[in-house]
Amino acid sequence: MSTARATPALPGAAEIPLQPASFDIWDKKYRLKSKQGVAVDADIDASYQRIARALSEVETTPELREHWRERFLWALRHGAIPAGRITSNAGALTHKPATSTINCTVSGTIRDSMDDILEKVHEAGLTLKAGCGIGYEFSTLRPRGAYVSGAGAY
Q: Which InterPro entries match (predicted)?
């Protein structure tokens, strides 16, 4: 039985070439750019390096950071695709200080009061501003048609 062997890629080269549509999406949504719209990531591999470096920064020693940076970079070059906020925002703190690498969050418990509902709306605005999605669990709110005190309506 024969086994195909992949030839090693040139250092710094992305293993999987992007199709034109994929390149366009990367350029418009995930390529790091300055506030003036100038590309910071020169190419897709620069994005991979930025992401790998950012993900490995949590390690406690330079050796571990380098160990994981290399592995993350290998995975990215071989087709691993992180969530959109990770791809867009990891390692981008200088250019995007108020963003997050979290794609989706879940709101805290919403108490059945006007003050708490409005507080959750405010929190949602801040969450969306950071680029995250948000989910809600509404079972703590009264059902449709229930009496609302002081509103004068049902």
A: RdRp_reductase_class-2, RNR_lg_C, RNR_lsu_N
Take residue 48 and report the two structure tokens written for it: 């991979």
The distance from CA 70 to its chain's CA centroid, rounded to whole angstroms, is: 20
Largest CA distance in the chain: 80
Q: Output the six-digit token pair for 23.
A: 């390149």
Place of tokens 């993900």: 55
Q: Residue 12 — left, alpha, or beta (φ > 0 → left; ψ -120 to 50 → alpha)? A: left
How many CB atoms sit inside 10 A of residue 122's CB? Answer: 9
CA atoms within 13 A on the CB side of 148: 12
Q: What is the pLDDT along the chain (154 residues), one digit of tens a residue?
A: 444 444 444 455 556 778 999 999 999 999 999 999 999 999 999 999 999 999 999 999 999 999 999 999 999 999 999 999 999 999 998 998 888 888 888 988 999 998 999 999 999 999 998 888 999 999 999 998 888 877 665 5
Q: What is the DSSP string of 95-108?
A: T-TT--S-SEEE--
